[in-house]
Amino acid sequence: MIAFVIRRLIQAMIVMFVISLLSFSIQDNLGDPLRELVGQSVSEQERQELRDELGLNDPFLTQYLRFAGKALQGDLGTSYFFKEPALDVILKKLPATLELVFGATLIIVCLSVPLGVYSAINPRSLLSKTVMGLSIVGISIPVFLTAIMLIYLFAVELAWLPSYGRGETVPVYGSWETGFFTVDGLLHLLLPCVSLASIMLPLFIRLIRAEMMEVLESEYIKFAKAKGLPLKRIYFLHALKNTMLPVITVGGVQIGTMVAYTILTETVFQWPGMGFLFLEAVNRVDTPLIVAYLIVVGAIFVITNTLVDLIYGLVNPTVKLAGGKS
Amino acid sequence: MSSDVLAPAAAPSRWQRFKDSQLVHSFSRDKLAMVSFTIFVLYLLAALLAPLIAPYNPYDPSAIDIMDSEIPPAWQEEADERFALGTDAQGRDMLSTMLYGTRISLMIGICAVMLQMFLGVMIGLTAGYFGGRIDSFLMRLADIQLSFSTMMVAIVVLAVFQAAFGAELYADLAIFMLILVIGIAEWPQYARTVRASVLAEKHKEYVDAARVMGFKSSRIMWRHILPNTLSPILVISTVQVANAIISEASLSFLGLGMPVSQPSLGSLISSGFEYIFSGSWWITVIPGIVLVVLVLVMNLLGDWLRDVLNPKLYKG
């Protein structure tokens, strides 16, 4: 077990190392830090001296080590546009994005489990067929299109819900503000969360259904039925437990994926989160901010995946610990 | 995709065999599959023949009049009979622009999937056939690549290239960049599937026989094992093309894909988004429907193929 944990942690570190290497080479090649510092009026001679002084002429490895050392201390450079530490700028926007992911996850969990289980137990009922039909339609609609359609319907035509921004927020801790505790904030959250959920919900319904149907075919369920246990107990106690194991693994990985989709929803709803910030940074060629975003998002992916793997290794005794393959 | 793979059944005996196969048999009994396939073929034809059937050429600036902008489709008031589905904000005929857009979307989707397939099959075959260290290294790589979502990788790579090249040069290269990025980001899907099938096939007697006869590894891999992994490849290919088209549309929506002067379905939707608030819904909604129907049909075909070629998954 310890070997498995160590192996998994080493892998996480290697991946983070590669991400930092890639981020650094982006920083190295994109934009010119000197131009941001001194402007046009400085002579070529002085430029070269400044370059030497700043260490921009050092070999790649030296520069990378300096970058990595600073990054480990939480210093990812200063944003050209905001004139603030890039990491701070990103972290200030993180709550808005996490709120979106959390709201969407809530919708997904509340809907996918009952619908998936129901359509696995009653595969021939009308409701199951409708759910399965709708889920394949849902998979086929890109998330940004769902968002646009929701805006058109609820914000433009019916004018029930707001179409952009976070609305009224209340401070929770430091710069962490949330829209979960005000009516206005919740109304603003509704459409973005629904559109973000719309891309994952069908996947989860189908996954839970498929897993559950497989479990229902297994010997121990047949045995439980033969023993005369109440059906409800079999379905929700015995079957659901084994259904959720793979679902949780996939789910953990999908939370990372959702961070990617927040870029799309945030753009449509002009949600002031990390993804929106990243696209703005790209348009302004704000290199330190781009790099900081890459490292933060890379870390989110690596941490969630590592945690999911570790939890899966703990929960599922059949996983091959030595090879680390699930 | 299915038609491409199945069509070259030239010799009559093969055609007969194809006609009697389980695939065709279940196809002729499944109305949904037939409808989906018909619509898909119509899309393919529309995409191929776009320059011939489109009433206007949306790439020709001299044929576009800005005075014609934002004309609603024919069934609305204030419509213009020259433009059956209305015009977009630049005064381009929606029907023609969408025909060309479908052509670009489908082309990017199919080319990207061909790249995925090429990389995935090569890597999957190598990993599955040789096993050992090569296998575990390649599969770890696939795990890691899969743990970062395609969307994320594509957005980051394209955004960095756009910032590095500048928007104008990027617009010229967009189509190749999209194919490359979507193609490279999704190879693990194929690699895993192919590897799993290879592992199942590897120890069968016909492979041992081929080895005893002294054939080289490469020949056994390509000529003997690969043909037996084709049906899972076929199943994922339909879904992968659908996904690639969605990815392309999403990237174009973010302004990282096809430029407005040469729009795919995604960039058309994107260009109409700002006009939705002023009531010009058709610029967004009509290409949106075209896109969703295309992707839906491919997903339905993919589902049907999975049911037919791999029945124990669903009927179990």
Automatic annotation (TrEMBL), chain A:
Q: Does the keyword Phosphoprotein apply?
A: no
In its keyword annotation, does this UniProt entry include Membrane? yes
Which family is it part of? Belongs to the binding-protein-dependent transport system permease family.
The places in or outside the cell where this protein is found are: Cell membrane
List the SUPFAM superfamilies hit by this protein, alphabetically: MetI-like
Q: Which InterPro entries does the UniProt entry name for this protein?
A: BPD_transp_1_N, MetI-like, MetI-like_sf
Report any one BP term from Gene Ontology.
transmembrane transport
Protein name as it appears in the record? ABC transporter permease
Domain ABC transmembrane type-1, by residue range, is 94-312
Gene3D superfamilies per record: MetI-like (1.10.3720.10)
The alphabetized UniProt keywords are: Cell membrane, Membrane, Transmembrane, Transmembrane helix, Transport
Q: Which organism is it from?
A: Motiliproteus coralliicola
One Gene Ontology term, aspect cellular component: plasma membrane
Membrane-crossing segments per the record: 9-26, 100-121, 133-155, 185-205, 243-264, 290-315
Q: How does it sit in the membrane?
A: Multi-pass membrane protein
From TrEMBL, chain B:
Question: Its topology with respect to the membrane?
Answer: Multi-pass membrane protein
Q: Can the keyword Transmembrane helix be found in this entry's annotation?
A: yes
Q: Which GO terms describe its cellular component?
A: plasma membrane
Q: Which UniProt keywords apply?
A: Cell membrane, Membrane, Transmembrane, Transmembrane helix, Transport
Instruction: Give the top-rank taxon of the lineage listed in the UniProt record for this protein.
Output: Bacteria
Its localization reads: Cell membrane
Please give a single GO biological process term from the UniProt record.
transmembrane transport
Any stretches that span the bilayer, and where are they?
32-54, 104-132, 144-163, 169-187, 225-246, 281-302
User: Pfam families under this entry?
Assistant: BPD_transp_1, OppC_N
Which CDD domains does the entry link to?
TM_PBP2
SUPFAM superfamilies xrefs: MetI-like
Residue span(s) of domain ABC transmembrane type-1: 102-302
Family label: Belongs to the binding-protein-dependent transport system permease family.
UniProt name for this protein: ABC transporter permease
